[in-house]
Structure formats: C-alpha cells, structure tokens
Design brief:
Layout: H1 3-13, E1 16-17, H2 18-28, H3 37-49, E2 53-59, E3 66-71, H4 73-84, H5 96-106, H6 111-135, H7 138-163, H8 165-173
Helix pairs in contact: 1-3, 1-4, 2-3, 5-6, 6-7
C-alpha cells in the first residue's frame, strides 16, 4: 500500500493533524505494521512540497505547534486517479516460494522438506487468522479473509509442486 496516497485519501475525508492521520492509518491500514511518526511527517512535508496538501490551522501543542493539513485540488485529483486505477493483478509469476524450490532442486537439497516446513508455517498463520476472524472487528475480519484466501492458494501450489517435484527436478537439472 502506498502511504502518501493513503494519507491523501484520509485528508480528503477531512483536514487532520499528523497525529490523527497516524492513528487512522494504523487503525485501518497498519495492522501489524504501524506507521512511524517520522514517516507521517516526512510524507506530509513531501506532499506539501509537491502542492498536494497545504498547512491549514496551526495551534500550539505541548511540543511543536500542531498543524492541520488540508488536501489541495491537485491532491484530490491524484486520489481520484489512484482509486479508479485497477491494482496490478497478482500473483507475480516469479515468487519467493518458487525460487526456493527451484534452487533447492538445482543444488540437490531436500525441496520436499522445504515445502513441508513452508506448509506448516502457512497452516500456523491460517490458524492465527482464523482466530482473528472469530474475535475481531469487521476490518480485521476482512483483512483476515484476504490473507486466508492467499494462503489457501499458496497451499494448493505447495501441494501441486510437491506432486511434480520429480519432473521439476529433471527440468531444472537438464
């Protein structure tokens, strides 16, 4: 996810302070990876430099003055363009899983063990996401669904690849 465009989208909703933007970003988009304050303010500085936001009201704070950022027409146009453009369809044809399996076969290492270890890691993560679905709020449930669907596809690939290892071994060694 692109942080600058997400912050612009949050600003299109309403003018906000950096602290509020970080809170909203972390609440909806930063699951497991909160946005550092430094990144929020450096991103806002670049957006201001590029004419996509301006500083509105400035109020004194306990530390530095609290600036309220306001999206400009240029920023709103960029958000509109970004939202209407489709996301590049995934998955990419070259993945880390594929690379590790092929290299293991090329190097005469036990690709089967790698696939078993990866399967176990995927199943652990699926159990974690399933628990989130049971106890989480709607945003968490929807993110968990997205993750589960991707993990299910990976597991299908792991199973298919395991069944084809002998043929793949021959192909990469020839």
């Amino acid at each position: 996810m692109t942080v600058p465009l997400t912050l612009l989208g949050l600003l299109e909703r309403e003018p906000s302070h950096g602290y509020d933007l970080k809170r909203d970003y972390d609440t909806f988009f930063g699951r497991g990876k909160p946005l550092p304050y430094g990144q929020v303010y450096s991103t806002l500085s670049r957006l201001a430099r590029d004419g996509k936001v301006v500083v509105g009201d400035v109020a004194p704070g306990a530390g530095p003055d609290r600036k309220r950022y306001v999206i400009t027409d240029r920023g709103a146009t960029e958000v509109e363009h970004w939202l209407t453009e489709p996301v590049e369809p995934e998955p990419h044809l070259q993945t880390l899983l594929f690379t590790k399996v092929v290299l293991a076969l090329m190097l005469d290492r036990p690709a089967e063990e790698y696939l078993d270890t990866q399967r176990a890691a995927h199943l652990r993560r699926m159990r974690e996401l399933t628990e989130i679905k049971r106890s989480g709020e709607l945003v968490d449930v929807m993110l968990a669904d997205h993750g589960l669907y991707h993990l299910e596809a990976d597991l299908r690939w792991i199973e298919t690849t395991g069944a084809r290892l002998d043929a793949l071994r021959k192909a990469v060694r020839s």
